[in-house]
Amino acid sequence: MSGHPTTGTPSLFEDGDERNYSRGAIHEEQRHHLRNVEGYMRTEDQHKAMNEMLSEDTQAQIGERYKNDPLYSATMHGNQPSRGAQQDAEIQAEETEMLRKKQEKTDSLAGKKLEQKPARER
Fold first, then answer.
1. CA–CA separation, 71 vs 74, rounded Å?
2. Given pLDDT bands bounded at 50, 70 and 90, which one contains residue 43?
3. Where is this chain compositionally biased, Polar residues type (predicted)?
4. 44: part of which helix (H) or strand (E)?
């Protein structure tokens, strides 16, 4: 025996265990993907659709990280980031810090409008 399951589809299994999703998890995930997974007749089809939706989410997160983190691409491939990528990361960190400091300064200005509470909460 190879230790791999011989029934079901590979997408239903993770580390040799079948993934079962609660109705709440299925409902919440389908709201974000605008897909009616609860309408599927078989539970196996629901789980397969959930795996696909979660995979799409993971791929989107990885894509965003590739765009925003200059060091991510090299480290994902097991390489040392280049000097240029390291400098880009340092510049990005400095700019983020400067923007945070500017935001703190403008938040404390006297003329800045504060969020208004409804009359009944005052």
1. 6
2. confident
3. 1-10, 76-85
4. helix 43-68
Are 35 and 27 in contact by the 8 Å Cβ rule? The answer is no
Distance, in Å, from the CA atom of 122 to the CA atom of 17, rounded to the nearest integer, reads: 54
Mention every residue, 6+ apart, whose C-beta is less than 8 A from residue 107: none
Closest by CA position to 86, among listed 72, 66, 99, 97 = 72
SS (H, E, C) 48-114: HHHHHHHHHHHHHHHHHHHHHCCCHHHHHCCCCCCHHHHHHHHHHHHHHHHHHHHHHHHHCCCCCCC
More confident residue, 117 or 25: 25
Among residues 89, 83, 41, 87, which one has the least CA distance to residue 68?
A: 89
Q: Which tokens sit at 56?
A: 């799409």
